[in-house]
Design brief:
This protein has 31 helices and 39 strands. With 966 residues, the protein is α+β, with helices and mostly antiparallel strands. One of its GO terms (biological process) is reproductive structure development.
Amino acid sequence: MALALQWQLQFPLPLQARPPAVAAAHRRQRPPAVAAAHRRQRRLLAPVRRVPPLRARCCASAAEAADAGKTQAAARRAYPYDEIEPRWQRHWEEHRTFRTPDIGEGLDTSKPKCYILDMFPYPSGAGLHVGHPLGYTATDILSRFKRMKGFNVLHPMGWDAFGLPAEQYAIETGTHPKITTERNIDRFRTQLKSLGFSYDWDREISTTEPCYYKWTQWIFLQLLKRGLAYQAEVPVNWCPALGTVLANEEVVDGVSERGGYPVIRKPMRQWMLRITSYADRLLEDLNDLDWPESIKEMQRNWIGRSKGAELEFAAVDKEGHDLGAKLLVYTTRPDTIFGATYLVVAPEHVLLSSLTSEEEREHVEEYKELAARKSELERTDLQKEKTGVFSGSYAKNPATGEIIPIWVADYVLGSYGTGAIMAVPAHDSRDHEFAMQYELPIIKVVSPPNGSCDPTEAYADDGIMINSCNSSSGLDINGMLSKDAAQKVIEWLESNGYGKKKVNYKLRDWLFARQRYWGEPFPVVFHDDTNEMVPLSENELPLTLPELDDFTPTGTGEPPLTKATDWVRTIDPLSKKPARRETSTMPQWAGSCWYYLRFMDPKNSNILVDKAKERYWGPVDIYVGGAEHSVLHLLYARFWHKVLYDMGLVSTKEPFKCLINQGLILGEVEYSAYRDNEGRLVSADSNSSLIDCYQEKVPADKVTKVGDHYVLKDDPNIRLNARAYKMSKSRGNVINPDDVVSEYGADSLRLYEMFMGPLRDSKTWSTGGIEGVHRFLGRTWRLIVGPPLPDGSYKDGTVTTEDEPTLDQLRVLHKCIARVTEEIHETRFNTAISAMMEFVNAAYKWETQPKSVIESFVLLLSPFAPHLAEELWFRLGHPQSLAYEQFPEAKSEYLEESKLVLPVQINGKTRGTVLVDKSCSEDDVFQIAASDEKLSKYLAGKGIRKRIYVPGRILNVILDQQKART
């Protein structure tokens, strides 16, 4: 009776949509009454509708679809994943198997912790493709492994759901972004659950929920109090069509990345965050992080710390008359001041208008307009041709007293340094190219130590100073080494009032405003009479978004929120003065800057995060995501974290201890052939030009591989172009994981994505590859459960025995345990799977399957294929989930090889080898050698004078030479 009740509680009887034969896997353990009830219900249920196979859906002809259908039917018979997976997903959800208790609610804080986090996903309407689960599967394997190793594991999931894509979709469809966002989140959540990821769904959060962005607004107020948030007039990337400011990374070739709309540069008053105040700490603390070196180097370059000098050039006219303006210049090479033959200012420089002569004004204004259409990334591209115009003004070089021209060029940015440079074309490649383009003077002032360099190119390295002396200025650095000369120039600048030593950064303050609707509102108001900015009090948070039916751009540059007039017009609660709200919203980055903290304490309505919880869980131990977030998200999150650290709200200097970047999964290889203008096929390795040829796709079934190349089956002389592309809807190469799960099961998808290759490498999807791992899971199932019965179902329980395992079986098992454990630690999941495949191959050769050995193997398999492992564990007689079972430990005594290959010499000459136990005696080794077919012919009938045996090294048999001759 107790057993029947226990079974009913774990697996209730199916109601309406229970698949056929759902109880077949558990007949051995359930009571007869329950089994009979299940059989009756199975007879009543209609057959489950089968989704057309993935391969069949991709086939070009009915015949191919039929063949694919047969292949699929065979694949589906590998094991009943379509029954197993939904059942265990329901079990995990009903029992909240992966819920992590809070401190004070049963969490044992004496145990070690491991916080494993995926980068916050954006829930798009397209849902997941098979590239997305790559990182999610990796973190799930690590999470399951750590739980079984006795760690308290925090493994949450949430949604970075504000931003431009949702707003653009709302504009296109007329659907409120809140509705589409909720729908997209529901789809993503369903897909993730279908893959069996062990997230703690009780901690789920979304940046669009007021209870979440209340604290984003609260952090902004703290930044404001500390002078780290301010407003300024800055040049921005403005997209009139999208009606918003775009980040540099959102602009490609002068158009918006989303939509391809023209983008211009124009000054706008914007909210800024003073991230530059933390530049040194952001740079220095990188050294302590367990991150890929390439990512750390990208951040170092983005911060761009450099040492140099800031110096003044007096603006003059052509005759040298002072114009009353001082042009401030930053240089990292003050030693080259004698080689400065012209100055360059950025098109957006604040003094440009006053420096432009009337004769040149039309040209300068035209150039400024052209430069405004380019992004900063385009302007600083080293490969692009340098362009510029003369301003009509000049400057006096303080070191030489020479009058040098002032030019305007877009390769100088107003946002870097002072927005002006002294150009030294002999020793800077950009300046050299510009000088050659416009026939400007080039004066060499640094000689290489060995005295030789290419006179047609700029020499940019250190050396010995030449042509660097002026008696009028009193500066002489001739013959000095570059570094010494630079220091002397700085001292000269400071003593004469021309400049000073300066540390500069490429990093700019963070432009923190967007002219969009779908984002976090700023918690500030502006007084109508004085335009004074007043922050809201903290008890007024959250300031929620108003409901708007029209999200379209205003066309004036004003944000869409200006249309919510009743919301915009307000009263300052403190002074009671009429006021208006800020109508820009925060960027999408805002909510993702601190979400990892909210997962530690997601329901707290009183404070950002409880200190005790943060001290226990922080920092994130393993953070997995794409390398495309290497600079912006990671740099912004580090900045916010350091501010919170300074406030005493977090206990660590850095938010993410270890960072792992997973590679891309590319679409299946596409084959294409070349045809000339007359339609004739041209081989891809043809000596003739392929520029005038056009390409056409070739179906995979018409392609064969010869050596390292792909050719047409019908004409092997025609080599094809074979390439895999990033998955995208436009290419039509997106693989929906729902289809893969339907055809092969979630465990097969998980296993294949890990088996494709190293986690950090890019990999190419292959449907044939997933069939291989699916067969492996089927072999594992049959090894433990046995072959299917005539009706396609499987016997109850398993085929394991209670026999004591042999020494050989224990060695095979513990070798597998050791390898899998090590490979999980090192995130080499593909080789861990290979080790388990080797175990299954070995186990198929055993006469019996000892239960104790098989149980350990099932536990090894569980982080990778959790549904199958749970089912096998239950069939092995364990009523509880294996999620918190102890992960097997490899025992050293079973890892040592018991046999070795021993060389055998006859009269000092090696004649062969024998396989012997390490513990073999000399007599035993000799008997084995004498019985060996190859060695016996040297020993038969021969007299033996002596034997020399070195255990584990060699056996040397010395024959009696006299008897040997007879």
